[in-house]
Records
---
Amino acid sequence: MIAFAGPCFAGAFEDAVAKFANDDFSDTEEAIGVIASSGNPLAYPIISALKDERLFADGDSKKVFIKQDDGKAIDAASGAAVDSLPDSASAVNLNNRLRRTVDAALGGLTLLSPDLATRLAAAQSVFKSHEEAVLPTVEGALAKETNKAAKTALGDARAAILLFKSDASEVDKLEAVATIKARGDQDALAMLSDVGADQPPAVTKAAAAAVASIQSTLAIWSTVQNAWYGLSLGSVLLLAAIGLAITFGVMGVINMAHGEMVMLGAYTTFVVQDVIRTRYGGLFDYSLLIAVPLAFLVSGAVGVLIERSIIRFLYGRPLETLLATWGLSLVLQQAVRTLFGPTNREVGNPSWMSGAFELGQMTITYNRLWILCFTLAVFVILLAMLRFTALGLQMRAVTQNRRMAASMGIATSRVDALTFGLGSGIAGIAGVALSQIDNVSPNLGQSYIIDSFMVVVFGGVGNLWGTLVGAFTLGIANKFLEPVAGAVLGKIAILVLIILFIQKRPRGLFALKGRAVEA
């Protein structure tokens, strides 16, 4: 009995494969169905080759061949190697309907894969195609599945098939609508929106109600997603502006080269990764941890050098300081172009900063999440340093009353140099973080200098809490305005609002007495 069954099934499989040579879409569709349900080990290679346009058929001999990735070919019906493809062989053609059938067949063939990710991808493919022919395979896989996520995905795929299955009962269709509604994403919304008038009235009504419910839920999640994008942007602005808040607040220096300190930190990260790639490949995941202190030291040292050689001769002359630091920013940009070239440099993401995860109907990328955590950590450390260290106490004293601090024996010139170095060093570690989300180029700092000044002025010059509130406020406001007004008009609107706000509160949200105020 078994000996008879084997050849019988083999003959059916070979006949189905031969139909690809007929150059007829209906024959191709029938062949896909037979092959996908045959259980033959060649089924997946054939359907996969058909999708990738590697399945060739010879109309004269009715032979079908699979062209492999290495350029060699095998007989699709037997798996035997062939010397070369016949000259008369051509790729089997597909139309849009057949492509959906192929996707569904591939999904069905991989539903029982031992790999969880493969099963999830297959279930998603079947959900989108909802081909009836795959229903037995889906139900069989669902009965065997033990993983919760895969079981849910298979249940969604089964519901999608039943919803559009012509002979499914009304009860099954209503249960399918409820299942797809519970999924609640854009794919579910699109599928339920496709339910037409040919369905029973109760199913059509349930689908319409589900569409309205999903749209309402997605609108809420869209708001939450925009808020997250705003927090993410705010963390970037805070990281770029926090060093400027120190130098501008304590010293009253309008440092137009602050963005170049950020750039130096980003290039330090590039150099660290380049050395690790070429010599110590196993340390790549630690490259950012190594780059953070080095970027702080490099940018901080350059900041001290700038203060000692240029800035200290220009105190009390803000316009000259602005012009000098602007010229210095051009010098630093050109120096970096000379050393590293004008093109963008690649800075990779370590494995722990790569990828994303889903939270409800919103997507959170690991690099943005780590940057937010890193920014808050820097902010807390900086607050602790200002509150509990001798340098912090001296900086606060100089900020509040410079002459009194000098009369108490504080070396104000030393505090100035260390303060400028601290602000520049923090800008350097901001460059480490920004290298993970932006292009590392000589113009990197210019993208953030204006926004940094806006954050500092809006929050209150010299007040770190004001900088925190200002950064997150502007970040969230910008992300909510962008979908309405566009990126450019959104920034213009933010700038106008800040100008109007400064008219009412010239010292920002949190005013702080300092040298600039006394002057």
Note: The two ends are 103 Å apart (CA to CA).
---
Amino acid sequence: MDLKSLLNKEQYEAASTINGPLLILAGAGSGKTRVLTYRIAHMIEDLNIYPSQILAITFTNKAAGEMKERIQGLVGDVADSMWISTFHSSCVRILRREIDKLGYNKNFTIYDSYDAKTLVKQCMKELNINDKDLTDGEIIGKISSAKNDLISSEKFKKENQGDFRKNKIADIYMLYQKKLKASNSLDFDDLIFMTVKLLNDFQEVRDFYRRKFRYIMVDEYQDTNRAQYELVKLLVGEEENICVVGDDDQCIYQWRGADIRNILDFEKDYKKTKVIKLEQNYRSKGNILKAANMVIKNNAQRKEKVLRTDSEEGEKIRIYRAFSDIDEGNFVAGEIKRLMKEENKTYKDFAVLYRMNSQSRILEESFRKSDIPYKIVGGLKFYDRKEIKDIMAYLKLINNPLDDISLRRIINEPKRSIGDATVAKVQDVANEAEDCLYNTLLDVDIIPGLSTKAINSINKFTGIINALMSRADDMTVSQLILDVLDQTGYMEMLKKSNAIEDESRIENLKELVSDAVEFEKGSDDKSLSAFLEKVTLVSDIDNLEEKEETSVMMTVHSAKGLEFPVVFLVGMENGIFPSMNALNSFNEMEEARRLCYVAITRAKEKLYVTSAETRRVFGRTVCYEPSDFIGEIPVGLKELVGGEKSRAVNTFKSQRRESVASYSSSFNRGTQSSVGAMMTSKETNVSKSSVNTSEVTQGRKVKHASFGIGTIVGISGSGSDMLLTVAFDNQGIKKLMLNKAPIELI
């Protein structure tokens, strides 16, 4: 395989370095998937490494599928014996083989977020915890964070006995885990947590997988949390053939546990690490790339790299300052219509990115008025619809009779005269006997206090389920779904209904059967367990059909890994992007800037950045300044558009000064905050800097008349517009205009 003719210099070096620890810092659009696929193909074709010895881990099923497809195109079907999958899917495969060592059956159920929420509410009820004191959302978040940090329920309880609130959460966490195990079920976070426990506790298991996977590759390493980090370390053998690919500038998931230190400190974990930077961008036009570089260089916590491109400069970034959010939505819709007419664009060329899902409503209204077809990524997913979740609950129960949560969902769906009071009585008996709900239902005739009608209804229900269980092994998944719809009366219930929405539910259930047929065609493992895993581990992005002739709307987080010819980045105001929390936190501001960098680098040809003077947020009208991040894009790379250019020009000219003052005041407290804002915007009573711009470099020490000694950690702009980010020894991070602030180099 002639890698040199297929890859650029840095890509070739990365693809041909096979042994020992390797850190590939892959900038946005730098062809990292190409590098990984050719690296794997080179290992198999040229070095005769068995495919089964290679483990490639990604974060989404979409990325895993794309990688596998590309590798198959290079080396053929031998790629089928490789493990190319997400963290969670890899862990499921290990657990299906080994989980009995932890006291679970191998046919365990994986609870999705809805199932987990239902179980938490059940635990709260049993412990008499009022949901006004503790919300299920807060509890689920704390349990998830604990598992991502590898903190068991027992350890969480021990660590928080002195904290009344967290101690209550600990009680729920302990009962929640007890009920999960009794139901032979794992939640999403357990998949990695339990695999780490398995590898830690059983050396023979650890040794087996270290021998099996001699070469490990991890994509998007900057997004790994503590549990994922430990999982990788446990799988890496003595040879340390570990290759991680990532971009610290695209670490945008700290809010769900991602730790940027994992990639920044990789060389400390593996002393013999070779570092290769992929800085050639193949996606974006020159001006878009320059803007992204100028924004991200303001971050202090990053590894130095600058993306470059051989592409033409392209158009400047278009800045639009709307009167209102409605005006903003109409502008976006109008530009889409104009570009389609004048430049022969299609609807799928456009993406609208925003910080929060709630921002889509106004945009949707504008798109509907303009007859622009659109799809929202991150809305109600197919598998979250009620009718789909009902049938999936039947399938989960058939696969695992210990699954009380699925059973409770469908025991009276369709209606079969088994009310909540009846279920509660049976549940009490099950709890007392420490048995699962389904086993207790099988002995319903001896449960006191139940009516004859209830007993007959339950016996009829268990008869249906027993019959389905007995036939399940002899049917394909699609046949089983049809059998469930028929035998339970679910389809008949919908057909008899006069409600319009039930017609679409029937269509959705037909689509579920079609999905099962596609699964059977494309999977080696066609079992019910495999189908349930595939459904549970699916994500929003996996369902994004790129061939669909619609524009898309999504959060910036959802857009990571995607690219579009034209991108509209909307709601770019201080208070929204960056959020108020980010404006008051150094770490959160750095993450918000990384998120902005991700948003900018989604655009291939054109980028619009819009903000509004007024918008409705949670029912009230707010007025926010344009985002600081717009101010970090040099003047020469952007242009104002729209009918109100005269008004916008004034905003444009004053924006850098205003954003600097806002940024400075947000990071400081008390009187120093006022001083910082005053100095950066006016500087009327103090001497200004006389520093030569050519002497200013990152890492240089400076002295400020009021703030003292500091280090330059970021530089943006040039000449009279040069803006410095300075980390002061005693005053924190501040943004200062070089030609206005009283500083000297030391």
Note: DSSP finds 32 helices and 21 strands in the chain.
